[in-house]
Write a structure and sequence with these properties.
Layout lengths: L3 H20 L7 H10 L12 H13 L3 H25 L4 H12 L2 H7 L4 H22 L4 H13 L5 H14 L9 H23 L3 H15 L6 H7 L7 H13 L7 H16 L11 H18 L2 H24 L9 H9 L9 H13 L9 E5 L2 H9 L8 E4 L2 H5 L9 E5 L3 H7 E9 L9 H4 L3 E8 L3 H8 L4
Parallel strand pairs: 1-2, 1-3
Antiparallel strand pairs: 3-5, 4-5
Length: 497
């Protein structure tokens, strides 16, 4: 049995895993999860919105657990538990002892983005893990000066590229760190280029897919980025570094980490890691990224800060040490309570559940999908021409399309089609639909594409919770008589979301 600091670290990681698993069943899938599940049933080497690794993991979840919220999110919760352990390992390799190791693991565990990714299945969870793993592997490389670590670094970068293209910001940070420090000596070694080859080899299938599809993901990313900038979602990037990317109550710790990596004698060997962390944060700011994109850069800084704090406590007087420890415990406990308040841990219809949804709007996107599928099933069952005409459901966004496709057999639904992201590439089917149940469109948009549209129902949920589906376009129409032939109509319906 593990004792001491590693027993505590594993206990924290286990709680980080079990808490979401035991509470995730209260809500339904998030709209982003529904899109990934649909792609998981249509495996490919690439998709419009993301690389292929996350849908592949979702396919494993479907094979093992079926369409289970708890089963799917087990994988993302496990990724964040591993990131917690890696935080402790990084502190150890940087010279930390018991306090630094435990503190690093705890503060990584209570990072808001990491906690959120324990309760959602998204590529962000695995992207976070790869960044932390790469940070750990670089610590081992710089500490041992063993070039063979480059092969592991290359493999982790390759897997990161198959998870989220934002790994490119970390790669730039690595390049800056190499060029700005004595670590540039690795550029002349065979192990470095071997690591580059491993990364490219792992990423190659998706690169080929992108070439075959005219780099469609680049078009998608540019479109989504433009939308985010226009909607003001990137305007609070710097503020988000203080309240979202890392826990606001651990700000002093990552500042200590910056000092340790850039200015301390103990951190001289690891100067490159400072650039590896800071460069992506700065680049994301300059490119107007969203605040949480930089979150994976902070576990390394938090671990370094934990080592620095431990070193200072050893040389401080008893009063200062006791005061610092007391303040630290209060801050970590408060930070823990804050991130727990943001999660799906309270019952959906309880006051605490309502409080959590007020702080975390993602929770509101995790209710009502069964109600939507049941309502569409009712409308389909009442169609007088459902046995004589080709009927399909046209969904306006990927959440609606994913939910209706996932619950299609349960509620007896016809074919589900949508013009958004990868759904568009799957087409409208043959023969083309003659009657469509249109979900997620307002009347003006529906009649723009079809000659007749009759109101047939409404999208609601049993909790009465307002979300995008119930407030933006809740009406459901039955439409006929397309205003153009289907190939032309389909080209007009294409969108990124």
């Amino acid at each position: 049995m593990l004792r001491g600091e590693w027993g505590v670290v594993l206990l924290v990681a286990t709680l980080k895993l079990l808490l979401p698993v035991l509470s995730n069943g209260q809500y339904d899938f998030h709209r982003d999860e529904l899109a990934v599940l649909d792609d998981a049933r249509n495996l490919a080497w690439g998709y419009v919105a993301y690389p292929p690794l996350t849908p592949f993991v979702a396919r494993l979840a479907l094979l093992v657990f079926g369409p289970s919220v708890v089963g799917l999110r087990l994988f993302s919760a496990l990724s964040q538990s591993l990131a917690t352990v890696l935080g402790g390992l990084i502190a150890r390799e940087l010279g930390g002892k018991r306090l630094a190791i435990v503190l690093a693991a705890v503060v990584v565990a209570i990072a808001p983005v990491s906690m959120a990714m324990s309760t959602l299945f998204e590529y962000t969870a695995f992207d976070y893990l790869w960044w932390v793993l790469i940070s750990y592997l670089f610590v081992r490389l710089l500490k041992s000066d063993d070039g063979r670590w480059w092969l592991g670094i290359g493999a982790a970068i390759g897997l990161g590229a198959l998870t989220k293209y934002a790994i490119a910001f970390l790669v730039v940070g690595i390049a800056v760190g190499l060029l700005a420090t004595r670590a540039r000596r690795y550029l002349l070694t065979g192990w470095f280029w071997g690591g580059v080859a491993v990364a490219l080899l792992i990423f190659l299938p998706n690169l080929v897919w992108q070439v075959q599809h005219q780099f469609i993901s680049l078009s998608f990313l540019l479109s989504i980025h433009g939308r985010d900038v226009q909607n003001g979602r990137t305007s609070e990037y710097l503020v988000d570094q203080l309240r979202l990317a890392a826990n606001p109550f651990t700000i002093p710790l990552w500042i200590l980490g910056l000092n340790f990596l850039f200015f301390s004698e103990a951190g001289r060997r690891y100067r490159m890691l400072g650039w590896l962390s800071v460069a992506p944060i700065v680049l994301l700011f300059l490119s107007q990224g969203r605040g949480y994109y930089a979150a994976p850069a902070y576990p390394l800084l938090l671990a370094a800060g934990s080592v620095s704090l431990e070193g200072w406590l050893k040389t401080s007087g008893p009063v200062a040490r006791r005061l610092t420890e007391t303040v630290g415990v209060v801050m970590v406990a408060t930070g823990t309570l804050i991130v727990l308040a943001l999660g799906p841990f309270a019952p959906v219809d309880s006051p605490l559940g309502g409080f959590a949804r007020g702080l975390n709007t993602d929770l509101g996107a995790e209710v009502g999908w069964h109600s939507l599928a049941a309502e569409v099933g009712r409308i389909y069952g009442a169609l007088p021409d459902r046995t004589t005409a080709t009927v399909a459901v046209l969904a306006g966004n990927y959440g609606e399309a994913g939910a209706l496709d996932l619950y299609r057999s349960r509620y007896g639904l016809p074919r589900i089609i949508s013009g958004v992201n990868s759904y568009w590439a799957r087409g409208y089917g043959a023969p083309p639909p003659q009657t469509l149940i249109v979900v997620g469109f307002d009347r003006a948009d529906a009649t723009r594409y079809f000659g007749t549209c009759d109101l047939a129902g409404h999208n609601t949920n049993r909790y009465g919770i307002a979300n995008e589906e119930t407030t933006d376009d809740p009406d459901i129409f039955v439409c006929r008589n397309p205003r153009a032939n289907w190939p032309q109509l389909w080209s007009e319906l294409r969108s990124f979301g």
